[in-house]
Design a protein that fits this description.
Layout lengths: L6 H9 L5 H6 L2 E6 L2 E6 L4 E6 L8 H27 L10
Antiparallel strand pairs: 1-2, 2-3
C-alpha cells in the first residue's frame, strides 16, 4: 500500500507528539518470572497473564500460590514504573514533586 500523504504532511506527523496517554496507559503491563512461573499484570496490578513451565508443576500448591503472589507484586511495580514513564510526558520537568 502506498502512503498518499505529502512530504510536508509526513514531516508534520513525525513532529506531532504522541498525546494518546489514555491508550498508552491502558496498554501498560508488567511481567515477572521465577522458578517456572511468569505473571503479567496491567497497570492496576490485575493479572492478565499466567504461565507455568513444567518446573512449576512440581511445586507444592502453597509454594506455588505464594510465588504467584510475590511475582504479581513485582510485576505490578514494573507496570507502575512503565506507567510513570508515560505520565512523565504530561508534567513539565520543574513541576514534578
Amino acid at each position: 500500500m502506498i502512503d498518499e500523504r505529502s512530504v510536508e504532511q509526513l514531516l508534520e506527523d513525525a513532529e506531532t507528539p504522541d498525546t494518546d496517554y489514555r491508550g498508552r496507559l491502558a496498554a501498560v503491563t508488567g511481567e515477572a518470572s521465577s522458578d517456572g512461573v511468569t505473571v503479567t499484570v496491567d497497570l492496576y496490578g490485575k493479572p492478565v497473564g499466567l504461565r507455568f513451565d513444567r518446573l512449576a508443576l512440581t511445586s507444592r500448591a502453597s509454594d506455588l500460590s505464594a510465588l504467584v503472589l510475590r511475582l504479581a507484586a513485582t510485576a505490578t511495580v514494573v507496570a507502575l514504573d512503565v506507567g510513570e514513564s508515560v505520565v512523565d510526558g504530561l508534567v513539565p520537568p520543574g513541576r514534578r514533586s
